[in-house]
Amino acid sequence: MTRPTDTALPGKGMPAIPASKRWLEAVPWLLALGTYAAAPQYAPLLTQIFVMILFAMSLDLLVGYTGIVTLGHAAQFGTGAYVAGILAARGWITDPTMTAVIAMVAAGCIGLFFGSLMLRTKGLAFLMLSVASGMFLYEIANKATGITGGDDGLQGVVFSPLLGLWEFDFRGTTAFFYSFVMLFLTFIFLRRVVNSPFGWSLRGLRENDLRMSAIGCHNYRRRLTAYTIASTLAGLAGAVQAQCTGFVALNSLSFELSGAVLIMLILGGSGRLYGAMFGVPIYMFAQDYLAKRDPTNWFLWQGIILLILVLFARGGVLSLAERGFHACCRRRPG
Amino acid sequence: MSELPVLEARELNKAFGPIAVTRNVNMSLMRGERRALIGPNGAGKTTFVNLLSGRLRPTTGNVFLNGIDVSRADEATRSKLGIGRTFQITSLFPALTAHENIFLALAESAGFGMHILRSARSYGSLHDRADELLEKVGLLGAAATSVQQFPYGQQRLIEIAVALALEPKVLLLDEPAAGIPTSERDLILDIVKALPSDIAVLLIDHDMDLVFRFAQRITVLVQGAILVEGSPAEIAADQSVRDVYLGERS
Amino acid sequence: MSSTLINILFFGLSYGMILYMTSVGLSITMGLMGFVNLAHGVFAMLGGYATVTLMNSLGVPFFPALLAACIMVTVLGFVLERLLYRRLYGATELDQVLFSMALIFISVAIARIFWGPLAQPIALPKYLHGHIDLIGATIPTYRLFLLVFGSVVAAALWLGFDRTLFGARVRAAVEDHAMAEAVGINTDRLFALTFGLGTGLAALGGGLGAEILAISPGYPLQYIIFFLIVVAVGGLGSIKGPLYASLIIGLADTATKYIMPEAGMIFVFAFVFLLLRWRPQGIVSRRKG
């Protein structure tokens, strides 16, 4: 029996990146480091972008891979941010790695809790509950002013030096490298997850959940696992945000943030992990440019961009680039 | 010594509100048996299959798999215990390749679905097995094509391969030849006939030619209840069956 | 104590009626077309703006303004359905969510451009200003009026849904699309009509409830959770479900505000989570499993 070789069988490898193009994977990372080297004064902005990419990537596991459309992912992001922030603000634990781990556990538990309440519903009911999960925590954080600072946010949070070596400095150098490394680790982890049998089964759930249960998958448990993993990573994003800025805004639990991160992900392209890397910076630069002059403007543009994405450019920027790339390739002789 | 049936339905009833769709159905499938289930439209054949596979729970009555009561078990559990099925309307993972479709079934039945950190590519024996199954249905050459690009008839074959990947003890085929041009039906029949001889197969179809060439025994379902059960020759000669089918035609 | 109770009852139920009118259209269109229209609140907001503008700028009296707003929004809903919504009926849930978010953002921007960022005050007619003494409590006439009006609308909807040919068609289509088409129901036209009707009702709720749910550009986002709760708790494609859900939510929210204002929406959310854990399909569901 003749078996096709691995290269002739892209079905075996998920992402359609041929071996000869593997170097492309290093490009975004080198680009990020290069930008910093060229303009270190932008470190805080880059840090902010890394945090949001991390957050959007965790959402991609749900939206892009599992097909769970949630409008409440900020519930877990905010939980991570507040847990890390409160631990440090109270002086209980100020070590960045320790607080990050605890924040992740807390966000994972919150995800497990809400997920177990939500994931038996579908469609509109699930969307509503996802919105409610975020608003529920938002209300609590808003009212518990003694602990969270309420509307003013949690201010002046100071963490001890990273690994006892590097202090979070004013220029944001430590924050930059810290968030960069965290993002990189998350990416490596998520890439493993989506390429594992578990990750494949998530795509199976996205494609056809009735078939999944007919081949023996307990869909609810599988989804809940995905939801908890994504929640844990969203919590990490929140914790890194709190550590790098020394501040936790009430906004970090908001419905607006949940919506924004979804748009960032879709803008780049969901279901491919790389989408977040492109969508987040584009969104943030566009927001900076358009909202500075007039917030009304920003609403309008966001609406128009979304409309175009849905009606004409499904798959986001990456998908467009890919199509363009293929069109070019085909035109080349040979 | 009498052998235990692989799959047994005992006094199975299902009602949707006031409407009884399955009435007092008793049926036993023996190991390796080739059984066909026929009946006019709306006889409740698919509902019956759904009761066996666990998609639906019976209102009253029980389903036994190798003597174990699985009436309360859900579809995923029953699948793990050895009930494989295809659907009347093809049910696959459209955007995934043929190979991936089968790999998923293999991974789930092997219990690897929760392996989170190991690369799916490293499960060599499962990939070999997936290719074997694809070869069995004659589609190995197109393993890397996403299933939505296959013609409908070939999708049905992939679905059979997916069900076989579960190494079921019982295979429920809900109209495997529906929507397939007559010329290609023989291919389906060949594949179904060539199924491992220890698997019990329950086949539903409207194509009498196909049914009579396939089945050792035939069960006729009318209005949710069993009208008669017997060998193909007995069924062909049965007056009540003729009445039902003639009645439908007029 | 008993006057508090009566207050909660009247404020809660009248608030529930507003929620009902603004949301019931969403329930029907959701059940009928399976379209996750997060932008339903946009139509309520536009109804509110139209009412207020007609009254304040053109001096149209309250009820004629309300009626005109209702008609305008119905037409707008009908047109949008034909031009945009229908393109996405077969689309994924994600696309529908993003599409309706886009409509929300655009409408928020438009509202800000035309009416500015602040809430629009509504000048209710004099006869709705006063109070009425009722079994030991003083109830604002406006609230009583909402309660009566809402009940009439609910009854009319129920009759229309249950007793007319149009209603029968909608029910048939909610339960089984293909079957409805097979028996000769033009589902395409039915969708457009129902969608228009649903948006018109939302506009009515928006205009009537301007005193309770303030008309500002943030309206579709600010109250989105209420509309979604009513529909999800009530059950898709039903007339009665959303009514029960609206009244329960209205009462629960009002009661918390009276008794434990610091709890905000926390109890309502907790209640909703538990209820849907118990009945994932909502209180009443017409759609098949």
Structural notes for this entry:
The complex is a heterotrimer of chains A (334), B (250) and C (289). Chain A has 334 residues and is mainly alpha-helical. Chain A has helices spanning 27-38, 43-66, 74-89, 96-118, 123-143, 145-148, 173-194, 197-207, 209-214, 219-245, 255-268, 274-293, 295-311, 316-331. In chain A, helix 3 (74-89) packs parallel to helix 5 and helix 12 runs antiparallel to helix 13 (295-311). Chain B has a single domain (7-249), classed as 3-Layer(aba) Sandwich (Rossmann fold), CATH 3.40.50. Helices cover 36% and strands 24% of the residues of chain B. Chain B is built from 9 helices and 10 strands. Chain B has helices spanning 45-53, 75-81, 98-109, 124-136, 152-165, 182-193, 208-214, 232-237, 239-249; strands spanning 7-16, 19-29, 34-38, 60-65, 68-69, 83-86, 170-174, 200-204, 217-222, 225-230. In chain B, strand 7 (170-174), helix 6 and strand 8 (200-204) form a beta-alpha-beta unit. In chain B, helix 3 packs across helix 4. The relative contact order of chain B is 0.18. The mean pLDDT of chain B is 87. Chain C has one domain (2-128, 138-278): ABC transporter involved in vitamin B12 uptake, BtuC. Helices cover 71% and strands 3% of the residues of chain C. Chain C contains 12 helices and 2 strands; from the N terminus they run ααααββαααααααα. The relative contact order of chain C is 0.21. The mean pLDDT of chain C is 87. Chains A and C meet through helix 5, helix 11 and helix 13 of A and helix 4, helix 10 and helix 12 of C.
What number is the mean pLDDT of chain B?
Answer: 87
Helix content of chain A: 55-70%
Shape call of chain B: globular
Helix-strand category of chain A: mainly alpha
Terminal-residue CA separation of chain A: 32 Å
So how many helices of chain A? 14
Oligomeric state as shown: heterotrimer
**Major sheet size, sense and barrel closure of chain B:** 6 strands, mixed
Please state the structural category of chain B.
alpha/beta
Distance between the termini of chain B: 47 Å
Strand runs of chain A, count: 0
Largest interface by Cβ-Cβ < 8 Å: A-C, 46 and 47 residues
The 3D shape of chain A can be described as globular
Rg of chain A over CA atoms, rounded to whole Å, is: 20 Å
CATH architecture of chain B, by name, is: 3-Layer(aba) Sandwich
DSSP, total strands of chain B: 10
What percent of residues of chain B adopt helix (DSSP H or I)? Answer: 25-40%
Determine the number of helices of chain B (DSSP H or I, runs of at least 4 residues).
Answer: 9
Report the top-level CATH class of chain B: Alpha Beta
